[in-house]
């Protein structure tokens, strides 16, 4: 099947120089804007040798930034996973009033600038914010502390899982769930045995994207963090501080962690896509073999 | 188990899908809900299953009110038009699903589940497909698996929503005969929805003809076909020729032909295309016309005859009769209806 490529005459039969020119332009752009910056991150990080690179990574402030980033992602991603599945389930499988409002609200974090998102939390929970006095009286710190960073991260990663699942679940319809109910399955059994297996690849894809964003978020987190070294700095914020202090090796060393993370994310993403496609393909080939 | 449906009404926004439907389904019968799309037949089936809640009315299973019973506890088997097989499970797991989700106390052992599933797969003659996935099956096979899955939970009632609607003609005819035989073996009370009158006439013990959320007629296939209760039923159960007429002293007249008619003002006279005699010689009271088209439809031949003051009349002849007389386009002919159904004061 895969070897059976269809030739469409006239559509892709451009003159060779046109092909080379278009391909060349694309390659130059990719090289200039993606490849060179990526290579330069690792180049700058390793410029003064492995020892300094490793020393920059195991430095206490850097370690604390890594830890905070991981903690934030560990809280934000599962929460948004739960919310995203629930919201997509509600939107795709049920009809209710205010559905379009809910869809718009889910998209809000995509359309609002992350800095504004951060500011919202400062306005709400900051010392001079709406709940500031009450929080101060009860000695609860949100802004310039870890809870604020987690809140801001949850906000910016809000739409990823839901956005990924809604079209998928809408396309699948709710026939299978109804069939499960008629056969006597409870709501939970229906979810675990029917709905979840059908959306697993889309869900994983959404989680990977949400995780990448959670670890890399700068704007919203920057507003609420207060940049306290070793306390409220995530990796992106730590990179900025080091860079501003002309500590280039340190800055690029930490940046290389983020870059590596991006590469791992890309690899995972491709793997998920490949896997999902292969599942489909296997089913199709087997169907054609009938 | 018998089903009683009492005064079921269901509204979707401004659209009245079901309007005060009452109906009894006898224990062990195979009942067809027949009607055009949008007539409410599928909604009624879903209300019986509990997948849809009625705005008013009651559903009784074997005399017990089931209106408030959750779909999970109604013990119905439901076969969906598009099969709704679980795509990530094998055929075996699909059929086993209803048994596996039971609470521990009533769940059969793995060995028992295996035995039951293979028994059902044997019943639908597809045991050799147990390890396949739904995407690997043909439409007809999928629908048979869907039926096996529905039967696995030993339902008291079997509900089928356009079970053969998505299949091609050949497979469809085969499957509906098979369904009839299966029903004769199992005697489970069954209701199936269809828009295909041929299917309903061939398979069902009784037919419920529905239109615009209401029941037009309930009866055996012979009853609804031979004595349709309304112009709608007559039209829906086969091709028709319609003549508009007026009733005068107990007779409705169409182009010189007279039909006995109950008293009323306007009359609709229906004649089926295969119940018309065609001659070359003028006969008393025959309707004169001219052959406009001839279409060969396999075993039958359909002629379109233009008639003055009326719409074109369709005449259906068996092939042999057509060949004997050698009818040609443009010929003058005379039509004599052998049978007609007259309705007075009906609007269509």
The gist of it:
The complex is a heterodimer of chains A (290) and B (348). Chain A is an all-alpha fold.
Identify the notable features of this structure and list them briefly.
heterodimer; A: 290 residues; mainly alpha; 13 helices; B: 348 residues; alpha+beta; five-stranded antiparallel sheet; 9 helices
Question: What does the model show?
Answer:
The complex is a heterodimer of chains A (290) and B (348). Chain A has 290 residues and is mostly helical. Chain A has 13 helices and no strands. Chain A is globular, with a radius of gyration of 24 Å. The mean pLDDT of chain A is 86. Chain B is built from 9 helices and 20 strands. In chain B, β9 and β10 (214-219) form a beta hairpin. Chains A and B meet through α9, α10 and α13 of A and β6 and α4 of B.
Layout of strands and helices, then pairs:
The complex is a heterodimer of chains A (290) and B (348).
Chain A: H1 16-45, H2 50-58, H3 60-93, H4 99-111, H5 114-125, H6 132-137, H7 146-157, H8 159-172, H9 175-182, H10 187-216, H11 219-225, H12 235-244, H13 248-289
Helix pairs in contact in A: 1-13, 2-13, 3-7, 3-8, 3-10, 5-7, 5-11, 7-10, 7-11, 8-10, 9-10, 10-13, 12-13
Chain B: E1 3-12, E2 15-25, E3 30-34, H1 41-49, E4 56-61, E5 64-65, E6 76-79, H2 91-100, H3 110-123, H4 139-152, E7 157-161, H5 169-186, E8 189-194, H6 197-203, E9 206-211, E10 214-219, H7 221-226, H8 231-236, E11 241-248, E12 251-254, E13 257-260, E14 266-271, E15 276-279, E16 287-297, E17 300-306, E18 313-318, H9 319-325, E19 332-337, E20 341-344
Helix pairs in contact in B: 2-3, 2-4, 3-4
């Amino acid at each position: 099947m895969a070897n059976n490529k269809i030739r469409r005459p006239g559509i892709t039969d451009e003159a060779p120089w046109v092909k080379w020119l278009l391909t060349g332009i694309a390659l130059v752009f990719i090289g200039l804007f993606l490849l060179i910056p990526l290579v330069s991150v690792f180049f700058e990080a390793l410029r003064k040798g492995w020892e300094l690179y490793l020393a920059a990574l195991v430095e206490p402030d850097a370690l604390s930034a890594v830890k905070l980033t991981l903690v934030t992602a560990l809280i934000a991603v599962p929460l948004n996973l739960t919310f995203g599945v629930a919201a997509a389930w509600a939107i795709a499988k049920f009809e209710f009033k205010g559905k379009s409002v809910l869809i718009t609200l889910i998209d809000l974090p995509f359309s609002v600038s992350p800095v504004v998102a951060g500011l919202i939390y400062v306005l709400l929970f900051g010392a001079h914010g709406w709940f500031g006095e009450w929080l101060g009286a009860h000695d609860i710190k949100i802004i310039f502390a870890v809870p604020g960073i987690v809140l801001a991260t949850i906000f910016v990663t809000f739409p990823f899982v839901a956005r990924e699942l809604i079209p998928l679940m809408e396309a699948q319809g709710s026939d299978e769930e109804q069939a499960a109910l008629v056969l006597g399955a409870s709501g939970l059994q229906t979810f675990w045995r029917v709905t979840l297996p059908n959306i697993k690849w889309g869900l994983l894809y959404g989680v990977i994207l949400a995780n990448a964003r959670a670890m890399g978020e700068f704007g919203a987190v920057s507003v609420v963090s207060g940049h306290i070294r070793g306390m409220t700095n995530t990796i992106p914020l730590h990179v900025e501080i080091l860079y501003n202090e002309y500590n280039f090796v340190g800055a690029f060393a930490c940046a290389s962690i983020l870059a590596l993370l991006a590469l791992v994310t890309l690899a995972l993403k491709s793997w998920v896509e490949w896997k999902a496609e292969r599942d489909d393909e296997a089913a199709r080939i087997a169907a054609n073999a009938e | 188990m018998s089903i009683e449906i009492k005064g079921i009404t269901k509204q979707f926004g401004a659209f009245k899908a079901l309007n005060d439907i009452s109906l009894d389904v006898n224990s062990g019968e195979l009942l067809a809900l027949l009607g055009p799309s949008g007539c409410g037949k599928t909604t009624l089936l879903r209300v019986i299953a509990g997948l849809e809640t009625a705005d008013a009315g009651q559903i009784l299973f074997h005399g017990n009110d089931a209106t408030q019973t959750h779909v999970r506890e109604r013990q119905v088997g439901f076969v969906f038009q598009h099969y709704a097989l679980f795509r990530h499970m094998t055929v075996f797991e699909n059929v086993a699903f209803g048994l596996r989700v039971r609470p521990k106390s009533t769940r059969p052992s793995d060995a028992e589940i295996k035995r039951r599933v293979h028994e059902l797969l044997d019943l639908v003659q597809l045991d050799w497909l147990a390890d396949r996935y739904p995407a690997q099956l043909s439409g007809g096979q999928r629908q048979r698996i869907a039926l096996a899955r529905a039967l696995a939970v030993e339902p008291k009632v079997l509900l089928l929503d356009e079970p053969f609607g998505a299949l091609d003609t050949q497979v469809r005819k085969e499957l509906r005969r098979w369904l009839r035989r299966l029903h004769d073996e199992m005697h489970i009370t069954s209701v199936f929805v269809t828009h295909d009158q041929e299917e309903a006439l061939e398979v069902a013990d009784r037919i419920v003809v529905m239109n615009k959320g209401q029941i037009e007629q309930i009866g055996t296939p012979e009853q609804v076909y031979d004595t349709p209760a309304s112009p709608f039923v007559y039209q829906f159960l086969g091709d028709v020729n319609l003549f508009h007429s007026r009733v005068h002293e107990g007779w409705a007249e169409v182009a010189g032909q007279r039909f006995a008619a109950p008293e009323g003002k306007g009359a609709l006279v229906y004649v089926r295309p295969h119940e018309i005699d065609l001659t070359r010689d003028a006969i008393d009271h025959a309707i004169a016309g001219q052959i406009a088209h001839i279409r060969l439809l396999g075993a039958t031949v359909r002629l379109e005859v233009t008639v003055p003051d009326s719409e074109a009349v369709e005449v259906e002849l068996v092939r042999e009769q057509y060949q004997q007389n050698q009818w040609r386009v443009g010929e003058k002919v005379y039509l004599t209806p052998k049978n007609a159904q007259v309705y007075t004061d009906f609007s269509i």
